[in-house]
Design a protein that fits this description.
Length: about 900
């Protein structure tokens, strides 16, 4: 339950009083407990079932149903239907039970809910791919942004995780989520009189939220035990139902644990490095144990970011203890079904632990499975033999996953560069990290007004098949004026909300009555409104707009064409640079030139984000390329009719075209960040002055900006079918989940006999690799042939395989156009054809052909790689020989 900021009590200096207080605390009785639940009239009993399933969060009629019980209370309980039913007056419940209009509304919603839940047939992939009935995905994440009354998220990663579950439900995927139930969640934010961010935490009462304990057949909570260094910690399993998808959350806040252990699930991303490793052990290893305790046997394990990578170590232990596998075979079995998504394009955003901390927490684990600790630590190091290298959770996840991806194409390239040390000797293009661009669950963020418009002109397909281009073509059928008036209503509501929030902020801060009164006049419901909301970190450059305050003031205060900006976002409690960005904006907002045009909304959360993406005209994003992995807030704004303006980073690098929005720069990357800030801030001012503002205020006789609306429609029609989580889930199914499940099925065949054979094959190939020799190659180093365009150039190589067999390797011809600095551009890989070499025992001749279809300087080489049906990526073994 969300509550206000707690009032801190006054301390006392009296020793006697303090002693008495301590004695009273020691003598506190152990309370017997009762759980009191609301007394719903029988006719309203379906409301309880609806309140405990987050399906309501993306269904406007269900939300409106709860709001009808008590609109003020619905806001007071922060859109928590369980708490609403617990606190609504009994007389009001009796009234609703005899209100024919309310009952018809409830029956209609429940009919749709029951139809949704009863559709149990598997997604079409199950039939198309002939998947085994046991196919099931376990999705691990440290945070989930599902609804405002469950504060289990901090930002984009959590929102993405929540959307993943919601779209999995809509697609009927057999997926279960795994996470932690944080007693305090992420911090709340308020600003002091100087504009400096302050943090506060609230204690969440999960007995009055859409979450419940998992109980055994005797009605007792189901618990798991996880070893933490020198002792065990118990954790209860809680359950959140997200449509058809269950989310299981672990909590250590139970009486049998020590006080320090109860705090493991206190705060999201709270505490020091030791608290972080304890949380990640609980999430990963505890999560695997929780699934076993619930009888769930996934065939795919998806780690969303590296926080949960210890899950693979727990699975390795299970393979050794329960299946009798060797360590090497257990690694192969676990890796086969592992999927890993990295979200972080900066080294500091990845979790590292020093060797002493790993020794403390994993010494017993290593002894338990009979493997030296250094071998375990090597799994988390780019160089497994460098004992001075810290253990990295991202490296562990990459090594123990057959399928790994970044969250945009540009982020894939950045990630390949960041983690290239794992696959040294291979070109970056050979990296096994692929790109699956993020998307958003559109129904969760769309305004009711815009949803009604979509339903009227697009039909239900925009919800049922949001990745269908054909479904979104209906955008063009929406009359321009109707689309514009709908968007204007949402802008008006955003401005009214912002004024109300600003007034509340000023009252909390103890502002003067005149300042509080002035809050009623800030912003203009008809002015061009820019939205900027996200985590405040230095690379996101929240203050970039203020590089030239005088020029910005002229833009904002134009007498005929005013512009206004709404900011929101939190900085990490330990990020002073991020806090300084917020302070800078607050100080500018208090200046007379900006007082009525710039507003910062405190305590950024799902509610504020929803108002902003639904009401902004222009969504602004200013990351320092290429440090934005993807960014999804702009996708939500686009679905609500906002136009996007951003540096070409993350998803906008893929989505931008001139008829959809604006690009800041042309994808340049700078070595001097100060110069970059100067150039790109000027570009923002130029775009606003010369393009955005004139286009917005170019009105027809009906006062509708026709060309602006045309861009809105183009943006919505072309971007919404691509940048949604429905499409994202289908990509994961095609490229990760189905292949991982099939690979796991193959490797566990005959009691994991294939896993042992694969491990032995890897050992044999690694031992024999140095015996491979390329004994003849057609060109001497430094020579160059001159050939006419269109020539087919034959390449022949004699290769001695030593102790290895021909089926153990693949020989490839690798060629492409050479850049001036000697790098291959867009290299082509061609499998070479093998012939037996009559002159050499265990020697072979390999032949290939270069097609000279492009003029210029071509470079080529021959390389030898390991090959096996269970080897997903040849580079995973780190073995390569170049001729």
């Amino acid at each position: 339950m969300r509550q206000g900021r707690p009032v801190r009590g006054a301390a006392t200096d009296a020793p006697a009083e303090a002693l008495c207080e301590r004695r009273n605390l020691m003598q506190q009785p152990k309370w017997h407990t009762l759980l009191v639940v609301p007394s719903l009239p029988e006719r309203l009993s379906p409301l309880s079932r609806l309140a405990h399933n987050l399906w309501y969060t993306w269904n406007q009629d269900a939300i409106e149903l709860f709001r009808r019980l008590d609109r003020d209370l619905w806001e007071e309980v922060y859109h928590n239907p369980v708490l609403l039913l617990a606190r609504v007056r009994q007389e009001r419940l009796q009234e609703a039970a005899s209100d024919e209009s309310f009952l018809l509304h409830m029956d209609s919603v429940m009919e749709r809910f029951d139809q949704y839940m009863e559709l149990k047939s598997m997604y079409s992939f199950q039939l198309e791919k002939h998947l085994d009935p046991s196919f099931r995905i376990a999705y691990f994440s440290a945070e989930y942004g599902l609804t405002e009354c469950l504060p289990l998220y901090s930002g984009g990663l959590g929102m993405l995780s929540g959307d993943h579950l919601k779209s999995s439900s809509n697609l009927r995927l057999p997926l279960v989520g795994v996470g932690l139930l944080y007693q305090n969640g992420y911090f709340g934010q308020y600003l002091n009189s100087e504009g400096w961010q302050q943090e506060y935490y609230v204690v969440n009462d999960y007995n009055n939220t859409p979450v419940f304990r998992e109980l055994d057949e005797n009605g007792r909570p189901i618990t798991v035990s996880v070893q933490m260094a020198d002792h065990d910690v118990s954790a209860e399993i809680w359950h959140v139902q997200v449509g058809r998808v269950p989310l299981y959350l672990l909590s250590t806040n139970i009486e049998e644990n020590r006080s320090e252990d109860r705090g493991i699930t206190s705060q999201l991303y709270g505490g020091d490095r030791e608290m972080r490793i304890r949380q990640e052990i609980l999430l990963g290893m505890g999560g695997v144990k929780a699934l076993k305790a619930l009888g769930i046997k996934p065939t795919v394990y998806h780690m969303n970011e590296g926080h949960s990578a210890f899950a693979q170590l727990e699975r390795i232990r299970g393979m050794i203890k329960e299946e009798g596998l060797s360590f090497e075979a257990a690694v192969e079995a676990v890796k086969a079904s592992g999927v890993f998504t990295t979200h972080t394009p900066v080294p500091a955003g990845n979790d590292y632990f020093d060797a002493s901390l790993m020794d403390r927490y994993f010494r017993n684990y290593a002894q338990d499975i009979g493997v030296p600790l250094q071998r375990i630590l090597g799994l988390g190091r780019q160089n497994p033999h460098d004992q001075n290298e810290s253990f990295c959770m991202t490296v562990l996840a990459l090594r123990l996953s057959s399928f790994k991806n970044g969250v945009s194409r540009l982020h894939r390239d950045v990630s390949r560069q960041m983690w290239h040390g794992i696959w040294q000797g291979f070109p970056l293009e050979d990296s096994p990290i692929i790109a699956i661009t993020n998307g958003v669950h559109v129904p969760s963020y769309i305004s009711k007004e815009m949803a009604d418009l979509y339903n009227r002109y697009l039909g239900p397909r925009w919800v049922e098949e949001p990745d269908s281009q054909k479904a979104w073509e209906g955008i063009d059928r929406i009359p321009d004026t109707e689309l514009w008036r709908t968007h204007e209503r949402r802008r008006e509501r955003l401005i009214a909300f912002a004024r109300r929030k600003l007034k509340e902020q000023l009252i909390r801060r103890g502002a003067l009555p005149s300042e509080i009164q002035a809050a009623e006049d800030v912003l203009d419901p008809e002015a061009l409104t820019i939205g900027f909301s996200r985590r405040f970190a230095a690379y996101k450059r929240g203050d970039l707009l203020f590089r030239d305050p005088d020029r910005l003031a002229r833009i904002l205060n134009h007498p005929q064409r005013p512009v206004q900006i709404l900011f929101a976002g939190k900085a990490h409690p330990q990020d002073s640079d991020g806090k300084n960005l917020i302070k800078t904006i607050i100080q500018f907002a208090r200046q007379e030139a900006f007082r009525y045009r710039v507003v910062f909304l405190e305590d950024y959360d799902i509610v504020i984000a929803r108002y902003l993406v639904q009401g902004a005209d222009l969504w602004l994003n200013t990351p320092r390329r290429p440090m934005e992995a993807c960014g999804t807030s702009g996708m939500k704004a686009v679905a609500n009719g906002a136009l996007h303006m951003s540096v070409l980073d993350g998803w906008w690098d893929e989505g931008y075209k001139s008829d959809r929005g604006w690009a800041i720069g042309a994808g340049e990357e700078y070595s001097d960040p100060r110069y970059q800030d100067e150039v790109e801030s000027r570009a923002i001012y130029d775009i606003l002055e010369k393009e955005v503002v004139p286009l917005f205020y170019e009105r027809g006789r009906d006062n509708a900006p026709r060309r602006w609306i045309a861009m809105m429609k183009s943006s919505m029609r072309t971007l919404c079918p691509i940048f949604n989580s429905h499409r994202m889930l289908e990509d994961y199914m095609d490229r990760c989940y189905v292949p991982a499940s099939e690979l796991f099925k193959e490797i566990r065949h005959d009691a994991f006999k294939r896993a042992e054979e694969f491990a032995q094959w890897k050992r044999r190939v690694a031992e024999g690799w140095q015996g491979i020799q390329v004994r003849e190659f057609p060109m001497e180093q430094g020579t160059q042939s001159v050939l006419p365009l269109g020539t087919e150039y034959p390449v022949r190589a004699r290769i001695f395989l030593g102790t290895l067999r021909p089926e153990d390797v693949q020989v490839e011809l690798y060629y492409g156009v050479l850049s001036p600095n000697g790098e291959l551009l867009e290299p082509v890989t061609q499998q070479m054809i093998r012939e037996k070499d009559p002159e050499t025992e265990n020697g072979y001749v390999y032949r290939g052909t270069i097609s000279c279809t492009t003029s210029g300087r071509l470079g080529f080489d021959v390389r030898v790689l390991p090959r096996h049906p269970l080897l997903v990526h040849p580079c995973d073994m780190g073995l390569i020989i170049w001729a």
